[in-house]
Design brief:
The complex is a heterodimer of chains A (533) and B (368). Among the domains of chain A are: 6-97 and 172-251, Rossmann fold (3-Layer(aba) Sandwich); 264-366 and 451-530, P-loop containing nucleotide triphosphate hydrolases (Rossmann fold, 3-Layer(aba) Sandwich). Chain A is 32% helix and 24% strand. Chain A contains 18 helices and 22 strands. In chain A, helix 5 (127-141) packs across helix 6. The radius of gyration of chain A is 25 Å and the shape is globular. With 368 residues, chain B is mostly helical. Chain B has a domain at 62-303. Chain B is globular and about 55 Å long. Classes of the chains: A alpha/beta (533), B mainly alpha (368).
């Protein structure tokens, strides 16, 4: 472990100011065989935004959860203003002035904003006072929210403001934000950072910003700590570093920042496949391998998650669907996975309409899906690699219903080799594989049978840089071989570097679609944020 | 940070399991010895009585085999429903309904003996499947938790069969009805009973062979055919199942029916083998074997073949305990001894279950 103390980045001078608001000393946490945090030291100073950077699984979240008492450390201690304290649960942390905004919101949707803010109070509920306080706070920090709005009516960006208000109302000296921008548009992120800046500069609080995005850490923080594999790899001042050295610290080797440019050869081949290059979307319906027309789905609570969604995917293209999360992407993937029926509208596969009651056959007929959460609908953790590779093509392992083990395992070994899946063999239980390798199992299964279309939903989320390179390469290969690829992603960079055409999903509708050449970041950002330019 | 399960770690795991059982059994033996000695009795008497009763005395292991059959059948059924993710705990009722169907058919269907035996056994399966099928239908039609319905249907079954045993048009033996003293069904005709085998003075019915064949068949179906594969998929991830056209309703309902069917079959075999209640259905006919079968399944931990030794051990405890009264130790104390021995078998699976779940959770958590 490469221990760098704060003094060393100060150029050797010994720090003599007031003690840090929070100091973690040698905090450790082990899950099973995995060291999530291994003797991590960190200091959060007042008046500073401290970026904690690392890939998924680096131990950032575990560290923060220990600071607010959601996870109890196996070893090490926490000091608040130089005093050693014990934090057993979030209430302890709250009393010590440590507050946290979680990546996943904990709001009651049916309640109004001020009611959510007041939740957890022990004293008598004073409606007017709380509402006033919420209004004052939102003015003070530039977090524009109406205290009387119902949370369920608010877009995600606003909900996060409510979470932030909940925290700030308790007047914390330390504010921790865990991946706060993962659900925000670029514009909303900037507003958030502006509010945070005010919090540290005008009120001398300490802020910890946990993130895996280089650009925002560079933009918003004063000081950066990089974590990898549960340990602190590097500490530095934001002003003294750049994206390349941060990336190197994060993954432990040189990487290209951003996505590789699309190879020219692939661009050519896609142009050959689409009959009339450059023509608009409406004109070429005959060539769509998958088409959705006015699809409407309703959840059990009656919310229309897809509300008249129409889209066409051509053979050999990558269609990038951008959008802030929660605008109907998951409903779209569920419809195309056969997990959900549509209330109205049609789905055409190779120009044939798919009957509403027969979506379960989509998988058989060549609709491959890489789901966003592979544990949810992509793999069976308790079954073996060979079995997980079998679902889409049971005949490869069962003849007249009888197991043909040698055939099944032979196929599995071929796929393991072809997709470079790192496991002990066909019999290895899937849960023993790392996340990237589980994702490769899904990819291998879904693409080995020559699909007609591939739906890839956030396919690179949670993967390390090497696995991302592999995944994007595979998507490009597939498109080249004539598969229509629908790439659903909230990362604009990913969409820009991979897609031939780009669409934006907003509140269950396709807000716009365009060729990549005609797209620019600003207009896409606006489309994502409000559905129009 | 990837974790590989190497062969050595699976060997280590086997060693751990062995140690767990050894310690747990030793603990129970020492504890019960202390209790027996504390009340002034002799521990070795108790121990010898258990061994004599279960297999040492002439004819005893035949009886133990007879008791093991219904337990094993119930356990196999339980494993099938567990596989698909359903919790069936109403085997006691399903056994009773199965036995009632069997008794009714045995009394009313004419024909050559072997045919009647066949019909009796099949109708036992059908009866049990019908009873658990009710719970299955409620589960998938109205989303009623099957844990509740299977359990509550035990009471319904007891009353339903009790009513049948009071009415000659249903189950009550017309000869017994005259005196109106006992509620018993008509005895199976001698030629429609399961043949019995006699080896070294041990007498048992061919239900032992039937159940061994069924265990082998189930093992094969679950591990070597697409039937077991489908149950596995639905049991572990319904969404994946649905995506690839494996319906959780169809698989779940079928597994539920099969699960109750095995319990009903256990009831029919009890009736036709004559090891219990002399080929008649009587109130309380199932003598808690349904519950014991559940315990057997719990200890066997979803492994069909493991049912055989586990059922034998539980059956041995049952037959052995009938000799305990002769030791002069008070009955309540011997009950405690028996309970401790059962507990010794149940603790290791519980420990393993909790530990496995923790590890799996930690795995998943550390990756998110």
């Amino acid at each position: 472990m490469n221990e760098l103390s704060i003094s060393s980045i100060d150029g050797g001078s010994v720090y003599t100011g007031p003690p840090p608001a929070v100091t973690a000393e040698k905090l450790s946490k082990t899950y099973g065989y995995v060291k999530a945090c291994d003797e991590v030291d960190i200091e959060l100073f007042r008046g500073e935004i401290h970026g904690i950077l690392g890939e998924n699984g680096a131990g950032k979240s575990t560290l923060m959860k220990m600071l607010i008492g959601l996870v109890l450390p196996d070893g090490g201690g926490v000091k608040v203003d130089g005093e050693l304290v014990t934090i057993r649960d979030p209430l302890d942390a709250s009393e010590l002035g440590i507050g946290m905004v979680h990546q996943h919101f904990s709001l009651v949707e049916a309640l109004t904003v001020w009611e959510n803010v007041a939740l957890g109070d022990n004293s008598k509920l004073d409606r007017n006072k709380t509402r006033e306080r919420v209004a004052d706070l939102s003015l003070q920090y530039g977090l524009d929210v109406d205290p009387d709005d119902r949370v369920e009516d608010l877009p995600v960006g606003m909900r996060q403001r409510v979470e932030l208000l909940k925290c700030l109302r308790k007047d914390p000296s330390v504010l921790i934000l865990d991946e706060p921008t993962s659900v925000l548009t670029p514009e909303e992120s900037e507003q958030l950072f502006a509010s945070l800046r005010r919090v540290v500069e005008e009120e001398n609080r300490a802020v910890a910003l946990v993130s895996h995005r280089l650009s925002e850490v560079l933009l918003a923080t004063d000081r950066i700590t990089i974590m990898r594999n549960g340990a602190v790899i590097e500490r530095c001042w934001t002003k003294d570093t750049d994206a390349h050295s941060l990336a190197r610290g994060m993954v432990g080797r040189d990487v290209e920042v951003g996505f590789k440019e699309v190879k020219q050869s692939r661009k050519d081949s896609s142009k050959v496949l689409s009959a009339h290059p450059g023509e608009n979307v409406e004109g070429s319906e005959k060539k769509f391998v998958l088409e959705l027309s006015n699809v409407v789905t309703s959840s059990s609570s009656g919310v229309r998650e897809l509300d008249g969604f129409s889209l066409g995917i051509k053979a050999g293209e990558i269609f990038g669907l951008a959008g802030v999360e929660g605008n109907g992407q998951s409903a779209l993937v569920e419809v195309l996975s056969g997990l959900r029926t549509v209330s109205s509208g049609s789905v055409f596969l190779q120009a044939k309409e798919v009957p509403h009651n027969n979506f379960g056959r989509l998988a058989e007929n060549g609709v491959a899906v890489i789901p966003e959460d592979r544990h949810d609908s992509g793999v069976v953790l308790g079954m073996s690699v060979a079995e997980n590779l079998l679902f889409s093509n049971l005949e490869e392992g069962y003849k007249h219903g009888l197991l043909n083990k040698s055939r099944r395992d032979k196929r599995a070994r071929e796929l393991i080799e072809k997709f470079e899946i790192n496991c002990t063999g066909p019999e290895a239980p899937l849960w023993s594989l790392s996340g990237g390798n589980q994702q490769r199992v899904v990819l291998a299964r879904e693409t080995s049978d020559k699909p007609v279309v591939l739906i890839a939903s956030q396919p690179t989320r949670g993967l390390d840089v090497g696995a991302i390179e592999y995944m994007t390469g595979q998507l490009q290969e597939l498109a080249k071989s004539g598969v229509g690829v629908l790439l659903i992603s909230s990362e604009l960079d990913e969409i820009f570097s991979l897609a031939d055409r780009i669409g934006v999903i907003f509140r269950g509708k396709l807000a716009a679609s365009m060729n990549r050449e005609d797209a620019n970041r600003e207009s896409l950002g606006l489309l994502m944020g409000r559905g129009e330019v | 940070m990837s974790l590989n399960l190497s062969p050595s770690s699976s060997a280590k795991r086997k060693g751990e399991i062995f140690l767990l059982y050894t310690f747990s059994a030793l603990g129970a033996l020492v504890l019960s010895a202390l209790i027996v000695e504390a009340v002034g009795a002799n521990w070795s008497d108790v121990w010898n009585a258990l061994l004599d009763g279960s297999f040492r005395k002439p004819g005893r292991w035949g009886r133990t085999l007879g008791s093991a059959v219904p337990m094993a059948m119930v356990a196999v059924g339980t494993i099938i429903s567990t596989k698909v993710g359903l919790i069936n705990i109403g085997q006691e009722g399903q056994m009773l309904v199965g036995a009632a169907f069997a008794a009714y058919m045995g009394a009313h269907v004419p024909g050559p003996g072997p045919l009647v035996i066949f019909i009796v056994i099949i109708s036992g399966f059908v009866g049990g499947a019908f009873w658990s099928g009710l719970a299955g239908a409620l589960r998938y039609w109205r989303n009623v938790p099957e844990v509740l319905t299977t359990l509550l249907l035990v009471t319904v079954a007891a009353n339903f069969v009790g009513y049948g045993l009071k009415n000659t048009w249903l189950l009550l033996d017309p000869d017994a009805a005259v005196g109106n003293r006992t509620q018993v069904s008509q005895q199976l005709d001698p030629d429609s009973r399961l043949p019995r085998i006699d080896i070294f003075g041990n007498n048992f019915s061919i239900s032992v062979i039937i159940s061994l064949l069924l265990i082998a068949l189930t093992f094969w179906l679950l591990s070597q055919t697409i039937v077991g594969f489908r149950l596995d998929v639905v049991g572990q991830n319904q969404k994946v199942g649905r995506r690839f056209g494996i319906s959780e309703v169809r698989q779940g309902f079928a597994a539920m029916c099969a699960s109750g069917g095995f319990a009903g079959l256990a009831g029919a075999l009890m009736l036709a083998s004559g090891d219990f209640a002399k080929f008649r259905l009587v109130p309380g006919f199932t003598v808690n074997l349904g519950w014991t079968g559940l315990l057997v399944a719990l200890v066997a931990r979803e492994k069909v073949l493991a049912v055989i030794p586990v059922a034998l051990v539980f059956a041995g405890l049952r037959t052995g305990s009938s000799f305990l009264a002769a030791t002069g130790v008070e009955r309540r104390v011997t009950d405690v001894v028996q309970g401790l021995l059962v507990l010794a078998l149940l603790v290791p699976p519980a420990v393993l279950f909790i530990r496995d779940r923790r590890r799996k959770l930690a795995q998943v958590e550390s990756r998110t």
